Amino acid sequence: MKFTIGEAKARLSKIIEKALIGEEVIITRGDKPLVKLVAVWQGESRRKPGSGKGQLLEMADDFDASVEDFKEYQ
Fold this sequence. Notes:
Blueprint: E1 2-4, H1 5-10, H2 12-20, E2 25-29, E3 32-37
Parallel strand pairs: 1-2
Antiparallel strand pairs: 2-3
């Protein structure tokens, strides 16, 4: 995600949350990237259930099919 300095000032809390869940956050001046915001805190995950909803573009038709190599273990 990219934010201008002005946007970053206005939405700092939200931008920090994005960095904490592992998203790449770039702060720009105009079109020029200046800063990459990276989480330092490595504590418990800040991801929320359902936060990836709609991000899966395509799933294989045989996604839940048995794998031949594991037939003997089933």
